[in-house]
Design goal:
eight-stranded parallel barrel; single chain; TIM Barrel; alpha/beta
């Protein structure tokens, strides 16, 4: 995986997602995200169908439960052969360690490469005000993200999902191979939708993100293929 631009396939059903992917001239070059909406509707079948098209897959189910339950779920995910998957760092170190064990066990059972496990720090829809007044967290948003990222690293997780705005600080305390994948990517002319901490592709690249996730700016564009190519060009600094 080398600095991917990941398209979030946030569609309500498999046919729409597959038709979307098939409009790209070389779908085998795509890295796509399957989130809760699509996976809950289509299940593992959508993973198999996307893999048949040659796509690399980020399965974003954000596991967050007691350690035993997370380990069992991660074991199932580990057998799917996806490249990336997610858990919530807020579940704590024992839960994250259980997820790592589950991913590795599932991959070994299916004889596939283990998915890289990414921990959610704070959602890009979370603002400083929400953190303090709704979630009753006294730490600043930056400190909270840093703490969760460090906890994830100590738990053996491969990286984090975080706003690109927090990447430089995370990189100062993590190992060089600790991944920072950033959602909340928008072009200057686009709506922020429900995202709060957003940056452009070029800024994410400058801040050191290892990959970016882009959904609605591509999937809702009048010409998704051209928009994808434009964002890819900006992301790669061309």
């Amino acid at each position: 995986m080398t600095h991917p631009l990941i398209i979030a396939l946030d569609f309500p059903e498999a046919k729409i997602a597959l038709d979307f992917v098939k409009q790209f001239p070389q779908p085998e070059e795509l890295f796509v995200k399957v989130g809760m909406e699509l996976y809950y509707h289509a299940g593992p079948l959508i993973i198999r169908e996307l893999k048949m098209l040659g796509c690399q897959i980020f399965l974003d189910l954000k596991l967050h439960d007691i350690p035993h339950t997370v380990e069992q779920a991660a074991t199932v995910i580990g057998q799917l052969g996806v490249e990336l998957t997610t858990i919530h760092a807020a579940g704590g170190q024992q839960m994250m360690q259980a997820a790592v064990a589950g991913i590795n066990a599932g991959a070994a059972k299916a004889n596939v490469a283990p998915a890289k496990l990414l921990a959610i720090t704070q959602l890009t829809s979370t603002s400083e005000q929400m953190l303090h007044h709704e979630l009753a967290v006294d730490a600043t948003l930056t400190d909270s993200v840093d703490q969760l990222a460090q906890l994830a690293a100590a738990s053996g997780v491969n990286g984090v999902i975080s706003s690109a705005l927090e990447v430089p600080h995370i990189k100062t305390t993590a190992s060089t191979d600790f991944l920072c994948i950033s959602p909340g990517i928008r072009l200057h002319s686009q709506s922020t939708d429900d995202q709060v901490r957003i940056v452009t592709p070029a800024v994410a690249q400058q801040l050191g993100s290892d990959g970016i996730v882009v959904g609605r700016p591509i999937t809702k564009a009048a010409n998704p293929v051209a928009t994808y190519q434009h964002i890819k060009m900006l992301w790669e600094g061309q």
